[in-house]
Automatic annotation (TrEMBL):
Annotated organism of origin: Microvirga lotononidis
Protein task: Converts N-acetylmannosamine-6-phosphate (ManNAc-6-P) to N-acetylglucosamine-6-phosphate (GlcNAc-6-P). Catalyzes the phosphorylation of N-acetylmannosamine (ManNAc) to ManNAc-6-P.
Similarity remark: Belongs to the NanE family. In the N-terminal section; belongs to the NanE family.
Record protein name field: Putative N-acetylmannosamine-6-phosphate 2-epimerase
A GO term from the CC aspect: cytosol
EC number(s) reported in the record: 5.1.3.9
Amino acid sequence: MTSQPAATALTESLRGGLVVSCQPVPGGPFDGPESVTRFALAAQNAGASALRIEGAANVAAVAAACSIPIIGLVKRDLAETPVRITPWVEDVIALAEAGAVIVAIDATDRPRPVAIGTLIETIHARGCIAMADIANVDEARKASALGADIIGTTMSGYTDVGPPPRTPDIRLVREAFGLGKPVLAEGRYNEPRLAAAAIRAGAIAVVVGSAITRPEHITQWFVDAIAAEATPQKPVLAIDIGGTKTAVALVRGDQIIERRQVPTRPADGAEMWLSAAAHAARDWRGQYRGVAAAVTGLVRDGRWTAVNPATLPVPEDFPIVSRLAEQFGQPVLALNDAQAAAWGEYCFGAGQGRDLLFLTISSGIGGGAVVGGQLLRGAGGLAGHVGQIPVPSPGNRHHRLEDLASGFAMAAAARTAGQDADAKAIFAAMAAGETWAERIVDAAVEHLALALPGLQALLDPQIIVIGGGVGLATGFVPRLEAALTRFPSALKPSLALARLGADAGLLGAADLLDRRAHLESDETAPTLVTGAAALNV
Ligand SMILES: CC(=O)N[C@H](C=O)[C@@H](O)[C@H](O)[C@H](O)COP(=O)(O)O
């Protein structure tokens, strides 16, 4: 019998290494001891620290050819039990005799012919190390109490009905690591970065099978990925709820397939705003695969709150994500409209992949930033709310940038000047040579010009994209550029006009929903949306 120190030393020899499971597809062209041995030798030559081999005959063949440790198992398809991996005492004995130094057994909580404790005792009596293949942390705890030396996450995803997930169960690695026993991460580690993530989660080593020794599976992954890309997906239903209008659209990639618009009636309240959107999209039911909402105000942890209730009186912490999920019965994402528009301009508009700060200057002022290819949402969803920046003003009252430089601010300034004109009329008057209108536009431009160098210094974006009805009005950006000439060149932003107009938020939100779907089950992917609100939109 292997002494405890020898068993510990052997287990330790696995630390930080790769275990290659050489289990060809049964009945496939690689099935049989000769191919298994070739796979094993190739793995050993390339630096594997151990092998996982199924069947006593294969174990014997590999043991004769390779010098690295073998984890042995026997797979049986039995009528009376769902347990497949090493169900019998005889299997343990045959594996030990064939040269396995570690014997893996199914240690899931399911009906079985032989008790887990009995199998572990037999493994130990034969001088081997017991590896318990489990599907959850409770099973890991029980197997550990019964004397298992190594925990394997092998069975996660294979004990429930339905197809197994695509990605490995890294959370289980982390949980099992907390029990203090060595953990071998196993099951669907199909990419090196996933294996690396398992090590970060506390695994002593990672077992990789299909991605190295099942060409049929690897072929299928490529076939499926190519086919999925070649077949057009259902569109996303994008919803943009602004202070005056609500737009709904079917979006695929950078294309708006169909778009409708209804007024937002501020007095109706949040439930009705959502119902109005659902009503506008009612005959698209069944045609989309998710709902992406871009809304004025702050979205934090799936809850919606007004930043400036004058734009839209959103109640505090309205559960927008869960309410939309109930309305539409689809996966939902929601975020601030200007953040969504920033992402839209970054992907498909003026940004085209360049880091940017986006400013929408219309009735209010909103914004969003993409830095290092990531949309900044911030810890609470506030990142990019440029219109909320406090601005010094006469009398030292609390003023925000949007109180002084937005379309509403310009209309208010016009009233003070004795003119009844909204932003559109002010620009028309300026074009007609009215000096009162020019003064109002220049005052708004001046407030923005004072804010932009500070934002440039903070984020250093490649461009600042200006959008919104006021931002895109004739003469606005040239005047802004002129007002910026007095600043040092390092602080002077490079300005660009937004290209997607009113569709930026719809396109950006729809794209984010798609990206989240890719990331959701993948703990290792870089966070698309930074801050504590990551992906929780
Ligand atoms: C669930 C089950 O029966 N797993 C088996 C256990 O030995 C093998 O079929 C897997 O190939 C092995 O776990 C490695 O996993 P992957 O091939 O995903 O890298």
